[in-house]
Write a structure and sequence with these properties.
It is globular and about 60 Å long. It is of the alpha/beta class and about 325 residues long. The strands form four sheets. Strands 3, 5, 6, 9, 10, 17 and 18 form a seven-stranded mixed beta sheet that branches. A six-stranded parallel beta sheet has the order 13-12-11-14-15-16. Strand 17, helix 9 and strand 18 form a beta-alpha-beta unit. The structure holds NADP nicotinamide-adenine-dinucleotide phosphate (NAP). The site of NADP nicotinamide-adenine-dinucleotide phosphate has 33 residues, from helix 1, helix 3 and helix 4. NADP nicotinamide-adenine-dinucleotide phosphate (NAP) binds next to helix 1, helix 3 and helix 4.
């Protein structure tokens, strides 16, 4: 059996997810159907999703060991530079789809197998590092702002927990769309960096100078009340994550009196990924990269994400 190096979940550890990560050898990817292809991974990026998987959230025990990683850019069997769209039809899953590393092996390996239709051409002016940031966090932020948040009809946007991968993406994309952007972060240094991206940076819970039309929520319990209070009449509060708790208290009076929309969303469609890449190319927008680690230091990359100190995306260089 051929083998390749990979980073995978070998167990679950709810308290110390880093202890559940193994770096070692795994079998080459298999093709469950004829239309699958194998991509040589050049760059991948980490998401909070990978830490959830190591904690045992969203990944079933009978799927272990599971290669982690949702995001990749690489080379297809015909030599084309591609970005891997990470959602795969999965009739056994209640959502009808699963994300790479939930059912099918993920991208933190030398090679990853996906249906051919999941390959999106990588624009030549996007590096492998930049391209590997887009399919999960950036796609999620793009759909939150556009399809769900209806950004075209918005003047002002609030992004909560702005140091994160999704949140920095939302700040950059909303600023590039010409909106007034407010962003909260617990950390003074991150607030300075958010301001440098063109947003007005605030401490969590701070009163905004105006109410906003779109709120980008990935933090959850720690910020949700502030999101409700900061929303203008008819605003859209778009939720794609709950890093700090998924059961916030919700003031329903405010929801109906202000006619707020609370919208859940996950990832995005292949067309939205193409639109996002076109937007990045056209507006010269590039992902915010916190750090690039050689694949041999994947454990350090996970520790960096786990530290909560990241500002933007943590990327793995699979050629190093
Ligand atoms: N549904 C989807 O399709 C989808 C896709 C991508 C991500 N997600 C989810 O979205 C969330 C963020 O993902 P990510 O990859 O962007 O994660 P990340 O890069 O690890 O960012 C998490 C951010 O949340 C903020 N935060 C964490 N704990 C907080 C607390 N107690 N109070 C206030 N802020 C807190 C921090 O911001 P500051 O340090 O700046 O305060 C941190 O930078 C995760 O829960 C993830 O599972 C969902």
């Amino acid at each position: 059996m051929r083998i390749m190096r990979a980073a995978y979940a070998s167990a679950f550890d709810a308290d110390n997810p880093l202890a559940a990560l193994t770096v070692g050898e795994r079998p080459e990817p298999v093709h469950p159907a004829d239309d699958w292809v194998t991509v040589q991974v050049r760059s991948s990026s980490l998401n909070h999703h990978d830490l959830w998987s190591l904690r045992g959230v969203g990944l079933a025990g009978d799927r272990l060991p599971m290669i982690l990683g949702c995001d990749a850019a690489g080379i297809d069997p015909d030599g084309n530079e591609v970005v891997v769209y990470p959602l795969i039809a999965d009739p056994g899953d209640p959502r009808g789809i699963s994300i790479l590393s939930e059912h099918f092996p993920g991208t933190f390996a030398e090679r990853v197998a996906v249906p051919r239709e999941n390959l999106v051409p990588k624009p030549a002016d996007l590096s492998f590092t930049d391209a590997a940031c887009l399919p999960t966090a950036w796609l999620t932020a793009w759909r939150m702002l556009t399809t769900k948040g209806r950004l075209d009809s918005a003047d002002a946007v609030l992004v909560q927990g702005a140091g994160g991968g999704v949140a920095t993406a939302a700040v950059v994309l909303a600023v590039a769309s010409g909106k007034r952007v407010y962003a909260t972060s617990r950390d003074a240094a991150k607030r300075e960096r958010i301001a440098a991206l063109g947003a007005t940076a605030l401490e969590p819970g701070a009163r905004l100078p105006e109410r906003v039309d779109v709120v980008i929520e990935t933090v959850g319990a720690a910020t949700f009340d502030h999101s409700l209070k900061s929303a203008a009449p008819m605003a859209r509060i778009v939720v794609s994550g709950a890093t700090a708790g998924h059961e916030p208290k919700v003031n329903l009076r405010r929801v109906f009196a202000m006619q707020l929309e609370i919208l859940g969303t996950s990832m995005g469609t292949p067309d939205e990924l193409r639109d996002l890449m076109a937007f990045c190319a056209e507006r010269k927008v590039r992902p915010v990269v916190d750090a690039v680690y050689p694949f041999s230091e994947v454990a350090q990359a996970f520790a960096r994400l786990h530290s909560g100190e990241v500002f933007g995306k943590v990327v793995l260089d699979h050629t190093a």
